[in-house]
Amino acid sequence: MIDRVKKCIITVCKGDVLAEQISNTSKLVEDFYFDSIMMIELIVELENEFDIEIDETDLVFEEFNVFESLVKIVEKTVG
After folding, report:
1. Rounded to 5 degrees, what are φ and ψ at 14?
2. Tens digits of per-residue pLDDT, 12-60?
3. How many domains does the chain have?
4. What is the residue range of 34's domain?
5. Bridge partners for 5 per DSSP
6. Residue 28: how many other CB atoms lie within 10 Å
């Protein structure tokens, strides 16, 4: 699960971020310079990768921005 979420982040960053750079406390905006378009691309990437639909109530910036919380959102959605 963690590696697949990292893969989605790397895809959105177009390879400018390496898996080794992503830790549980990584913040998408502060550490990897995500903007609003990249956040949307990441949502689409995650939904396609895991064949899920992320509930908009889970898209709270403070949680979605932190890698560890993002993984928990995906795990919850996958079930």
Report:
1. 55, 40
2. 999 899 999 999 999 999 999 999 999 999 999 999 999 999 999 988 8
3. 1
4. 2-78
5. none
6. 23
Which long-range contacts link 47-53 to residues 24+ away (Cβ below 8 Å)?
49/4, 49/7, 49/8, 50/4, 50/74, 50/77, 50/78, 52/77, 52/78, 53/77
Task: Look up the CATH number of the domain holding residue 47.
Answer: 1.10.1200.10
Among 50, 45, 44, 70, residue whose Cα is nearest residue 58: 70
Closest among 18, 6, 13, 16 to 49, alpha carbons compared: 6
Q: What end-to-end distance do the CA atoms of the chain give, in Å? A: 12
Consecutive H or E run containing 64: helix 61-64
